[in-house]
């Protein structure tokens, strides 16, 4: 078996080589930079600074001395100012000339300095003479001096200084060209070194890349063959470096896939048997994945949804009912986000009731978990309970409603009234109750029969429903006696409502089959909640007592319990 270098060894080699190349290039760059800086520094110290000192000397002779002499003669400078400028010029000439002589190294420079010595001595004597004239304030002597003696003494030394400047410029140019040549050579050498480093790094990188991609391409080929379904392949593992572990992983994956494919066939056969069983049960069944996407719908559920298709398609426009598999079950809910919140974390049986096409279904959802208790999805069953709910509602209505008038019976009225009392006490509102009794109802039964009496009771109930508010609660306590609970109604408003009822009863009547008309009236007792400890029974007793007073006062009247007798 061919033993390849490890990836770690190859990386160390590449990084070491690149580090050495970087160190070499850095050293080369620093060395060239040092040479260039040294050359520039030499030009500055040996040529630029001497030129500056020569320029100062030349300016002192050609400008300060000559210019001061002329300005003094013309009266532009007084004698004191002129003397100060001449003295300053003398000092600067001496300082800068001495500095230049010390820095001069070329033979030609020394030769010219020797030649300039007598000229400078002569020029300095001339300056001394000018200084004496100025000190004596001799205008005539100054005019003669500036016209005939100044220039012959100053011009020779300034010319000699110009020769020295010319030598400095020639030497500076030569030294600059030499430095530039060194720089160009260093630059070319650096380019060659960088190019060579890049080529070597590229070559090493290609070798390193091929050593890695060879194994990766092998692994890719094996993985693609396994992905296409060919899991029975032989995987060759060559080499010992780290990437060979990919091939080892591919070998392990192949072995696992062989086992998984075998188990998948067994699972598919088991699922087919379960599907046949589920398709033959009457319960509606759906199975979803963990994201609540439908992965199975049994025949019963399919038929149920097909029957309800037109209204469902109108209500849930985003669902394709002919292609339920793949749809999200949350879309069946009126508020999908609420159902998603419940089912996303479902870990036990969940029951609720849903409505599909005006039919009620009892829905049960159970999580599907594997042997390690990991949730795989959700099984949803729903059963049509429309008839059962309708029957239950009918029984509840019969237990709570008066069969003749449809109003709340006594028990249900008391239950609603006690709930309203609690609400009234919590929010500190007003609450009143009316107790109503049909006047002379026994005479109506005796004169027209019980059937006519029933018609009067029904019309009485309808009139109450028309006159009273939606929040008011009406109940038949028994026989011809009724009660009305008035939420948020104080005594005055309760009496006003009772008076409206009396007026409505007086204007109302019942017409029998033989066209006979029955008129009826009622007496009403009113009671209002007076303290927080009062109960509904106590309020009804107060209203009943007030009703009794209304009866004895001649009937067809309203009497409030809180009125003084």
TrEMBL record:
Residues 429-563 form the GGDEF domain. It is an enzyme of class 2 (transferase). GO terms for cellular component: plasma membrane. One of its GO terms (molecular function) is diguanylate cyclase activity. The chain crosses the membrane at residues 12-30, 187-209. GO terms for biological process: cell adhesion involved in single-species biofilm formation; negative regulation of bacterial-type flagellum-dependent cell motility. This is Putative diguanylate cyclase YdaM. Its EC number is 2.7.7.65. The keyword Transferase applies. Keywords: Membrane, Nucleotidyltransferase, Transferase, Transmembrane, Transmembrane helix. SMART domains: GGDEF. InterPro entries: Diguanylate_Cyclase, GGDEF_dom, HlyB_4HB_MCP, Nucleotide_cyclase, PAS, PAS-like_dom_sf, Rev_trsase/Diguanyl_cyclase. CDD domains: GGDEF (cd01949). It comes from mine drainage metagenome.
């Amino acid at each position: 078996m061919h033993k390849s270098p490890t990836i770690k060894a190859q990386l160390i080699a590449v990084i070491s080589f690149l580090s050495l190349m970087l160190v070499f290039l850095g050293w080369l760059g620093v060395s060239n930079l040092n040479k260039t800086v040294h050359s520039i520094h030499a030009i500055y110290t040996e040529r630029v600074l001497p030129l500056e000192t020569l320029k100062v000397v030349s300016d002192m002779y050609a400008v300060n001395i000559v210019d001061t002499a002329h300005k003094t003669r013309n009266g532009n400078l007084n004698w004191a100012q002129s003397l100060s400028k001449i003295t300053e010029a003398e000092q600067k000439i001496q300082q800068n000339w001495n500095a230049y002589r010390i820095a001069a190294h070329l033979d030609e420079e020394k030769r010219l300095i020797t030649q300039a010595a007598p000229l400078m001595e002569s020029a300095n004597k001339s300056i001394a003479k000018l200084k004496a004239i100025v000190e004596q304030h001799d205008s005539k002597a100054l005019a003669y001096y500036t016209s005939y003696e100044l220039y012959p003494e100053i011009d020779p030394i300034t010319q000699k200084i110009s020769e020295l400047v010319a030598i400095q410029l020639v030497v500076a140019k030569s030294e600059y060209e030499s430095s530039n040549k060194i720089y160009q050579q260093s630059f070319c050498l650096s380019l060659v070194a960088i190019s060579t480093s890049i080529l070597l790094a590229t070559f090493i990188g290609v070798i390193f890349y091929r050593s890695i991609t060879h194994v990766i391409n092998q692994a890719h080929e094996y993985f693609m063959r396994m992905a296409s379904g060919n899991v029975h392949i032989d995987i060759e593992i060559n080499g010992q470096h780290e990437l060979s572990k990919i091939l080892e992983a591919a070998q392990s994956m192949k072995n696992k896939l062989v086992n998984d494919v075998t188990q998948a066939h067994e699972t598919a056969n088991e699922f087919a048997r379960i599907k046949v069983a589920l398709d033959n049960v009457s319960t509606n069944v759906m199975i979803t994945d963990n994201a609540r996407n439908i992965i199975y719908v049994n025949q019963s559920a399919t038929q149920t949804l097909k029957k309800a298709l037109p209204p469902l398609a109108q209500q849930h426009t985003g669902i394709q009912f002919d292609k339920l598999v793949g749809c999200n079950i949350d879309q069946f809910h009126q508020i999908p986000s609420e159902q998603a919140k419940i089912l996303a974390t479902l870990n036990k049986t969940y029951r609720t009731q849903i409505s599909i096409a005006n039919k009620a279904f009892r829905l049960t959802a159970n999580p599907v978990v594997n042997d390690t208790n990991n949730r795989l999805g959700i099984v949803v069953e729903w059963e049509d309970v429309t008839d059962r709910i309708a029957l239950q509602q009918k029984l509840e209505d019969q237990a709570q409603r008066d069969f003749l008038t449809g109003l709340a019976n006594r028990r249900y009225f008391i239950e609603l009234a006690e709930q309203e009392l609690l609400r009234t006490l919590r929010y500190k509102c007003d609450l009143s109750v009316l107790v109503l009794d049909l006047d002379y109802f026994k005479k109506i039964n005796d004169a027209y029969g019980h059937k006519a009496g029933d018609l009067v009771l029904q019309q009485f109930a309808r009139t109450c429903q028309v006159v009273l508010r939606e929040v008011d609660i009406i109940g038949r306590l028994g026989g011809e006696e009724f009660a009305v609970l008035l939420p948020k109604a104080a005594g005055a408003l309760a009496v006003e409502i009772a008076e409206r009822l009396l007026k409505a009863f007086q204007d109302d009547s019942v017409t029998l089959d033989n066209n006979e008309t029955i008129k009826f009236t009622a007496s009403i007792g009113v009671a209002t909640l007076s303290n927080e400890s009062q109960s509904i029974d106590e309020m009804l007793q107060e209203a009943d007592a007030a009703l009794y007073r209304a009866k004895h006062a001649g009937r067809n009247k309203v009497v409030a319990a809180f009125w003084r007798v």
